[in-house]
Write a structure and sequence with these properties.
The structure is a single chain. The protein is an alpha+beta fold and about 240 residues long. The strands form four sheets. A six-stranded antiparallel β-barrel has the order 2-3-7-6-5-8. It has four helices and 15 strands. It folds into two domains: about 80 residues, Elongation Factor Tu (Ef-tu), domain 3 (Beta Barrel), CATH 2.40.30; about 140 residues, Threonyl-trna Synthetase, Chain A, domain 2 (Threonyl-tRNA Synthetase, Chain A, domain 2). Helix 2 crosses helix 3. It is about 20% helix and about 35% strand. The termini are far apart.
């Protein structure tokens, strides 16, 4: 198992860890990590490892292993792999991660502005989208952006908490996504709370206050089938 430090503190940029193994595809396993693994529409983190002998190993992406408690760090091609037991210092590509955090939190707010079932989504480095189970869009993109920015500017705190699988099953209205189910099975589920405006299951990384999102533009509203509407957003900067 990997100790997932990003769950408790998404702002950690570096940490020390020990290599616990290298899988048959060259993925590096550690006893602890600050790197988020691909999941829930959010890409895996990138960055690099610093070894005690001064070597550097660039990490191209991060994915889950056989379970959600095992994180695999995928090195860029053509690099010498570490050995089990090696001590490494992890360095996160923070600029990229912070953009992903801002977009991810903005998409949670988008689901508040448009309170309809979510059929899909994607988080990018400065932009993202949500798809809604919706026959017609009830407002223009300018109004969507105005409402989203109003909530973000209110500087709501963003925090996490946990409930049991049974508690979530008793409150199905908390699950907004139709295509991606909450990570259940371990007995407890992580929730992300945004002030008093939103509470939903999520394993991703987020900013600590909505004001950190900054200004957001709604760049496009698309019709993607008879019962599906896609809304694309981007960070203004």
């Amino acid at each position: 198992m990997t100790d997932l430090l990003f769950r408790d503190d998404a702002y950690l940029r570096t940490c020390e860890a020990t290599v616990t193994g290298v899988n048959d595809r060259g993925g590096v396993l550690l006893d602890r990590t600050i790197f988020y693994a691909t999941g829930g529409g959010q890409p895996g983190d990138t960055g690099h490892f610093e070894l005690s002998d001064g070597r550097r190993i660039d990490i191209a992406t991060t994915v889950y292993g056989e379970t959600k408690s095992e994180i695999v760090h995928v090195p860029a091609e053509g690099q010498e792999l570490p050995a089990t037991g090696d001590k490494v210092v992890l360095h996160l590509d923070w600029e990229r991660r912070y953009k992903l955090m801002r977009v991810h939190t903005a998409l949670h707010l988008l689901s508040v502005v448009l309170p309809y079932p979510v059929t899909g989504g994607q988080i990018g480095e400065g932009d993202g989208r949500l798809d809604f189970d919706l026959p017609e869009m009830p407002m223009e993109k300018e109004e969507i952006a105005s409402r989203l920015n109003e909530i973000a500017a209110a500087d709501h705190g963003v925090s996490t908490e946990w409930i049991t699988d049974e508690e979530l099953l008793a409150k199905p209205e908390m699950v907004k996504t139709m295509s991606v189910k909450p990570p259940m099975g371990s007995g407890h589920v992580r929730l992300v709370r945004i002030g008093d405006v939103d509470l939903q299951p999520c394993g991703g990384t987020h900013v600590s206050r909505t004001s950190e999102i900054g200004q957001v533009a709604v760049t496009k509203v698309e019709k993607k089938g008879r019962q599906n509407r896609r809304v694309r957003i981007s960070l203004a900067d």
